[in-house]
């Protein structure tokens, strides 16, 4: 049933005094680092730059310490018990702790069980908050917000470019598309946006498969609540994503707007990462030793979710060593060890890496990346070109965005669409060749990539500065919410 909203004029539903709901923002991130961190940055930005707001972030017991250490004291934390949901092991409350990728749908179903504790928390508030900002995976939050009289702004952790493509492919599945087939135009997107069948994200490709647990979860818990949201918070900025806002918004009901307020880590302001908590392995000190060779070092990371096969790690190790460039490589596997001597200029780290500071370091000249959207923006905001090596989720589309649209990188040859791991092993010769190309600042391709990365770096800075597109979007989002602070009086949708 559609909710009936009482749109109150300023002052009618709350007097604007601290303590009524108008000054209160609730943020509920999904428990995956790539989804959580940008909302930490959003919470920080609100708390630092909009001091009249109270910010509450919802988390779970195991995630509490991580949240506390990365948020200002002014952000209030609320802890909900993480539901038990066998076969998910007890204590696994974040996707990076999953013992295997096949448990991802189980993890999602466990998070859906947070509905009742979340509803209790919302009902306990003395007055409806200004807004709930919650992850699209937490679809239940939409209904809970509606019955407690609150608008929901949804967050996905993705760009408008990739979200619009995903939604288009789900709503209008292209006919006759087969693996190995030619690129095709994606409906509702600008003419220049074509993708190959292999670039279709796995969940999208399997969307109508009743036996695909990821697709089932999306259909049952996410799709409708997502498009009924009041608005969409996007961790991106107009210079790189503006052309895709209108196509993306066209999939939402009730005229929801996409608010591009990123890169959120810049919106939040620089946070020092040179401490034990953020740099337990001393990555920055190691890079300092190479600072006399600016741009010499490759940074390699595939994020917090992709599981990379040992055979692939072996090939990568050989390829990196053969490239002759110093490298700092974040490896997730505890068990794998390199099959080759890495030498003094090759460094593997397995603990937390202060990635934004690493990318900004003068010694780093390029990023070998899985193209998670956060990593992508962090690289572009640091002005560093990428060797795009997409692995899971919508990463193939981010790779396309960076390489084919923005022009700030190159791709590895073998990409997969399996959804869990690299299916085709990228061999050492390919790694060596592509890393050399990435790091060749003087070559034609290297110069072009660097010029484009420098352009995005500048554009990102401008976007978050006073009067920039992201700065204006955030003011306007808050203004629009406050001028129509409302109370829903009917049942949930
Ligand atoms: N990250 C980090 N240090 C680590 C691991 C991850 O700073 O050791 C951050 C990284 O900078 C990025 C996020 O975690 O902001 C990962 O998000 P992304 O979208 O790049 O990839 P995902 O992990 O979701 O695949």
Automatic annotation (TrEMBL):
<keyword id="KW-0328">Glycosyltransferase</keyword>
<keyword id="KW-0808">Transferase</keyword>
<protein>
    <recommendedName>
        <fullName>Glycosyltransferase</fullName>
        <ecNumber>2.4.1.-</ecNumber>
    </recommendedName>
</protein>
<feature type="domain" description="Glycosyltransferase N-terminal">
    <location>
        <begin position="25"/>
        <end position="264"/>
    </location>
</feature>
<dbReference type="GO" id="GO:0035251">
    <property type="term" value="F:UDP-glucosyltransferase activity"/>
</dbReference>
<dbReference type="InterPro" id="IPR058980">
    <property type="entry name" value="Glyco_transf_N"/>
</dbReference>
<dbReference type="InterPro" id="IPR035595">
    <property type="entry name" value="UDP_glycos_trans_CS"/>
</dbReference>
<dbReference type="Pfam" id="PF00201">
    <property type="entry name" value="UDPGT"/>
</dbReference>
<dbReference type="Pfam" id="PF26168">
    <property type="entry name" value="Glyco_transf_N"/>
</dbReference>
<dbReference type="InterPro" id="IPR002213">
    <property type="entry name" value="UDP_glucos_trans"/>
</dbReference>
<comment type="similarity">
    <text>Belongs to the UDP-glycosyltransferase family.</text>
</comment>
């Amino acid at each position: 049933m559609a909710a009936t909203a009482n749109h109150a004029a300023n002052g009618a539903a709350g007097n604007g005094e601290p303590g009524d709901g108008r000054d209160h923002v609730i943020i509920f991130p999904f428990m995956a680092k790539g989804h959580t961190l940008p909302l930490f940055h959003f919470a920080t930005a609100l708390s630092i730059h909009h001091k009249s707001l109270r910010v509450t972030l919802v988390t779970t017991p195991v995630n509490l310490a991580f949240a506390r250490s990365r948020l200002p004291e002014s952000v209030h934390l609320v802890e909900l018990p993480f539901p038990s949901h066998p076969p998910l092991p007890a204590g696994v409350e974040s996707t990076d702790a999953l013992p295997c990728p096949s448990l991802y749908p189980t993890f999602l179903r466990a998070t859906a069980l947070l509905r009742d504790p979340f509803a209790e928390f919302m009902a306990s508030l003395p007055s409806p908050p200004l807004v709930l900002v919650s992850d699209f995976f937490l679809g239940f939050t939409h209904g809970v917000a509606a019955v407690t009289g609150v608008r929901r702004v949804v967050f996905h952790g993705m760009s408008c470019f990739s979200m619009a493509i995903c939604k288009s492919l789900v709503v209008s599945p292209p006919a006759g598309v087969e693996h190995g087939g030619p690129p095709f135009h994606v409906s509702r997107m600008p003419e220049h946006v074509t993708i190959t069948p292999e670039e279709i994200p796995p969940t999208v490709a399997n969307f109508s498969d009743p036996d695909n647990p990821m697709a089932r979860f999306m259909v049952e818990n996410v799709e409708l609540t997502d498009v009924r949201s009041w608005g969409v918070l996007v961790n991106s900025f107009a210079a790189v994503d503006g052309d895709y806002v209108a196509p993306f918004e066209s999939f939402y009901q009730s005229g929801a707007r996409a608010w591009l307020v990123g890169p959120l880590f810049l919106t939040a302001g620089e946070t020092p990462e040179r401490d034990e908590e953020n740099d337990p392995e001393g990555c920055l000190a190691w890079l300092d030793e190479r600072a006399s060779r600016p741009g010499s070092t490759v940074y390699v990371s595939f994020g917090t979710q992709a599981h990379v096969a040992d055979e692939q790690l072996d090939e990568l190790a050989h390829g990196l060593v053969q490239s002759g460039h110093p490298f700092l490589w974040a490896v997730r596997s505890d068990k794998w060890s390199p099959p080759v001597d890495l030498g003094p200029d090759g460094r593997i780290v397995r603990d937390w890496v202060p990635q934004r500071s690493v990318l900004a370091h003068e010694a780093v000249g390029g990023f070998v990346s899985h193209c998670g959207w956060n990593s992508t923006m962090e690289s572009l905001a640091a002005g560093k070109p990428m060797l795009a090596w997409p692995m899971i989720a919508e990463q193939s589309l981010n790779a396309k965005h960076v390489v084919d649209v923005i022009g700030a990188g190159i791709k590895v040859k073998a990409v997969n669409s399996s959804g869990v791991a690299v299916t085709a092993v990228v061999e050492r010769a390919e790694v060596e060749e592509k890393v050399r190309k990435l790091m060749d600042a003087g070559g034609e391709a290297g110069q072009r990539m660097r010029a484009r990365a420098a352009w995005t770096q500048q554009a990102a800075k401008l976007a978050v500065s006073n009067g920039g597109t992201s700065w204006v979007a955030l003011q306007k989002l808050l203004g629009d919410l406050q001028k129509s602070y409302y109370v829903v009086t009917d049942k949930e949708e």
